[in-house]
Flavin reductase like domain-containing protein
Amino acid sequence: MKIDIKELSENVVKLIGDHWMLVSAGERGAFNTMTANWGGMGYLWNKPVVFVFVRPERYTYQFVEKHELFSLSFFAAEYKKTLGVLGTKSGRDMDKMGASGLTPVFTESGTPAFSEARIVLECKKLYSDMISAENFIERDILEKWYGGTKGDFHRMYVAEIVGCEVKQDKNE
Protein backbone atom coordinates (compact mmCIF):
# COMPACT_ATOMS: atom_id res chain seq x y z
CA MET A 1 0.00 0.00 0.00
CA LYS A 2 1.42 3.38 -0.99
CA ILE A 3 1.51 5.92 1.83
CA ASP A 4 2.82 9.42 2.37
CA ILE A 5 6.27 9.11 3.95
CA LYS A 6 5.09 11.43 6.75
CA GLU A 7 2.67 8.66 7.79
CA LEU A 8 5.45 6.10 8.34
CA SER A 9 5.39 5.32 12.06
CA GLU A 10 8.57 3.23 12.33
CA ASN A 11 11.54 4.01 14.58
CA VAL A 12 14.02 4.69 11.78
CA VAL A 13 17.10 4.41 13.99
CA LYS A 14 16.04 0.89 14.96
CA LEU A 15 14.90 0.09 11.43
CA ILE A 16 18.27 1.01 9.87
CA GLY A 17 20.61 0.19 12.74
CA ASP A 18 19.11 -3.09 13.94
CA HIS A 19 17.06 -4.48 11.05
CA TRP A 20 19.29 -3.20 8.22
CA MET A 21 18.18 -2.38 4.68
CA LEU A 22 18.94 -3.25 1.10
CA VAL A 23 20.15 -0.46 -1.16
CA SER A 24 19.21 -1.36 -4.74
CA ALA A 25 19.75 0.40 -8.04
CA GLY A 26 19.69 -0.38 -11.72
CA GLU A 27 17.02 -1.57 -14.13
CA ARG A 28 15.45 -4.82 -15.27
CA GLY A 29 18.22 -7.15 -16.36
CA ALA A 30 21.01 -5.04 -14.84
CA PHE A 31 20.77 -4.19 -11.17
CA ASN A 32 22.41 -4.98 -7.87
CA THR A 33 21.69 -4.70 -4.18
CA MET A 34 23.73 -4.47 -0.99
CA THR A 35 22.97 -4.60 2.69
CA ALA A 36 23.52 -1.40 4.65
CA ASN A 37 22.98 -0.13 8.14
CA TRP A 38 24.64 3.27 7.85
CA GLY A 39 22.16 5.95 6.98
CA GLY A 40 19.20 7.90 8.18
CA MET A 41 16.01 9.73 7.33
CA GLY A 42 14.92 13.27 7.92
CA TYR A 43 13.86 16.51 6.36
CA LEU A 44 16.23 18.68 4.32
CA TRP A 45 15.73 21.35 1.67
CA ASN A 46 11.96 21.18 2.35
CA LYS A 47 11.92 17.53 1.28
CA PRO A 48 11.71 14.19 3.09
CA VAL A 49 15.14 12.63 2.58
CA VAL A 50 17.35 9.66 3.29
CA PHE A 51 21.08 9.60 3.48
CA VAL A 52 23.05 6.44 2.76
CA PHE A 53 26.70 5.53 2.38
CA VAL A 54 28.25 3.30 -0.30
CA ARG A 55 31.92 2.49 -0.81
CA PRO A 56 33.13 2.82 -4.42
CA GLU A 57 34.55 -0.71 -4.21
CA ARG A 58 31.06 -2.15 -3.82
CA TYR A 59 29.48 -3.50 -7.00
CA THR A 60 26.23 -1.69 -6.16
CA TYR A 61 28.10 1.64 -6.29
CA GLN A 62 28.22 1.72 -10.09
CA PHE A 63 24.45 1.21 -10.26
CA VAL A 64 23.73 3.95 -7.71
CA GLU A 65 26.09 6.29 -9.56
CA LYS A 66 24.53 5.59 -12.98
CA HIS A 67 20.85 5.87 -12.05
CA GLU A 68 18.85 8.82 -10.74
CA LEU A 69 16.75 6.59 -8.46
CA PHE A 70 17.49 3.84 -5.97
CA SER A 71 15.42 1.99 -3.40
CA LEU A 72 15.75 1.10 0.25
CA SER A 73 14.01 -2.14 1.22
CA PHE A 74 13.32 -3.06 4.84
CA PHE A 75 12.41 -6.58 5.96
CA ALA A 76 10.96 -8.48 8.90
CA ALA A 77 13.43 -9.97 11.40
CA GLU A 78 13.35 -13.44 9.82
CA TYR A 79 15.24 -12.06 6.78
CA LYS A 80 18.29 -10.95 8.80
CA LYS A 81 20.38 -13.99 7.75
CA THR A 82 19.57 -13.35 4.08
CA LEU A 83 20.54 -9.69 4.46
CA GLY A 84 23.79 -10.81 6.08
CA VAL A 85 24.64 -12.91 3.02
CA LEU A 86 23.73 -10.07 0.65
CA GLY A 87 26.08 -7.83 2.63
CA THR A 88 29.06 -10.15 2.38
CA LYS A 89 28.85 -11.52 -1.18
CA SER A 90 29.38 -9.55 -4.38
CA GLY A 91 27.09 -9.53 -7.39
CA ARG A 92 30.28 -9.37 -9.48
CA ASP A 93 31.19 -12.89 -8.37
CA MET A 94 27.86 -14.67 -8.10
CA ASP A 95 24.13 -14.51 -8.70
CA LYS A 96 23.25 -12.89 -5.38
CA MET A 97 19.59 -12.59 -6.28
CA GLY A 98 19.24 -16.28 -7.06
CA ALA A 99 21.15 -17.27 -3.93
CA SER A 100 19.12 -14.93 -1.71
CA GLY A 101 15.73 -16.39 -2.55
CA LEU A 102 14.30 -12.86 -2.67
CA THR A 103 11.94 -11.84 -5.47
CA PRO A 104 12.96 -8.72 -7.39
CA VAL A 105 10.15 -6.33 -8.31
CA PHE A 106 10.31 -2.95 -10.01
CA THR A 107 8.56 0.29 -9.18
CA GLU A 108 6.56 2.20 -11.79
CA SER A 109 9.79 4.13 -12.46
CA GLY A 110 11.72 0.89 -12.99
CA THR A 111 13.68 0.96 -9.73
CA PRO A 112 14.48 -2.50 -8.30
CA ALA A 113 13.08 -3.56 -4.90
CA PHE A 114 11.87 -6.83 -3.36
CA SER A 115 8.40 -8.30 -2.93
CA GLU A 116 9.29 -9.71 0.50
CA ALA A 117 10.15 -6.25 1.88
CA ARG A 118 7.71 -4.82 4.38
CA ILE A 119 8.75 -1.22 3.57
CA VAL A 120 10.17 0.08 0.28
CA LEU A 121 11.34 3.65 -0.17
CA GLU A 122 12.03 4.93 -3.66
CA CYS A 123 14.64 7.66 -3.55
CA LYS A 124 15.83 10.31 -6.02
CA LYS A 125 19.45 11.44 -5.65
CA LEU A 126 19.86 15.11 -4.74
CA TYR A 127 23.46 15.36 -3.54
CA SER A 128 26.54 13.20 -3.12
CA ASP A 129 29.99 13.69 -1.70
CA MET A 130 32.94 11.55 -0.66
CA ILE A 131 33.69 11.24 3.03
CA SER A 132 37.14 12.74 3.59
CA ALA A 133 39.70 12.31 6.35
CA GLU A 134 40.23 16.04 6.86
CA ASN A 135 36.58 16.62 7.77
CA PHE A 136 36.52 14.26 10.76
CA ILE A 137 36.16 16.12 14.03
CA GLU A 138 36.04 12.91 16.07
CA ARG A 139 39.36 11.40 14.98
CA ASP A 140 38.67 8.07 16.74
CA ILE A 141 35.93 7.36 14.19
CA LEU A 142 38.41 7.91 11.36
CA GLU A 143 40.79 5.39 12.90
CA LYS A 144 38.14 2.82 13.85
CA TRP A 145 36.14 2.74 10.62
CA TYR A 146 38.66 3.81 7.98
CA GLY A 147 42.08 2.85 9.35
CA GLY A 148 43.17 6.46 9.35
CA THR A 149 43.70 8.74 6.37
CA LYS A 150 44.40 5.90 3.93
CA GLY A 151 40.96 4.32 4.46
CA ASP A 152 38.49 3.32 1.76
CA PHE A 153 35.98 6.09 2.26
CA HIS A 154 32.27 5.98 1.49
CA ARG A 155 30.31 8.21 -0.83
CA MET A 156 27.35 9.78 0.94
CA TYR A 157 24.11 10.20 -0.97
CA VAL A 158 21.29 12.48 0.10
CA ALA A 159 18.11 11.52 -1.73
CA GLU A 160 14.51 12.68 -1.71
CA ILE A 161 11.99 10.01 -0.74
CA VAL A 162 9.66 10.05 -3.77
CA GLY A 163 7.70 6.89 -2.94
CA CYS A 164 6.84 4.80 0.09
CA GLU A 165 5.14 1.40 0.08
CA VAL A 166 4.26 -0.48 3.23
CA LYS A 167 2.85 -3.98 3.47
CA GLN A 168 -0.24 -4.06 5.60
CA ASP A 169 -0.08 -6.11 8.77
CA LYS A 170 -2.15 -9.27 8.32
CA ASN A 171 -4.03 -8.37 11.52
CA GLU A 172 -5.34 -5.07 10.12
Helices lie at 12-17, 59-66, 80-86, 96-100, 139-146.
